[in-house]
Amino acid sequence: MSRLLLGIIAGLVFGLVDILLMLPLSFPDKRAAIAGAFINRFSIGFVIGAVQLNWPGWAVGLFIGVLLSLADAIITKAYAPIVGLGAVGGAIIGFLVQRFAR
After folding, report:
1. Burial of 97 (0-12, 13-18, 19+ CB in 10 A)
2. In the predicted model, what is the mean pLDDT of the chain?
3. Quick count: other Cβ atoms within 10 Å of Cβ 91?
């Protein structure tokens, strides 16, 4: 499987997991919050699959996960859950892309 395809699939899964985690929470505009979170998490997987850095896969994923999560965290002022989940998910996706993609 190509790096990009695996990144897209992983981003879709990561986005769906994030939606499931957000469903019990309340937001002023829940649809917008869930759509924004899905797009962010999907983007993490897509970008990890698209870039090629000479770093360990988990490090690429960690960097991209934190980088792409920072904007949402700054806007919402919910740093720990947003950046934390982005970092963990990004590191896992980075590892998977490095290990299983060609």
Report:
1. buried
2. 97
3. 22
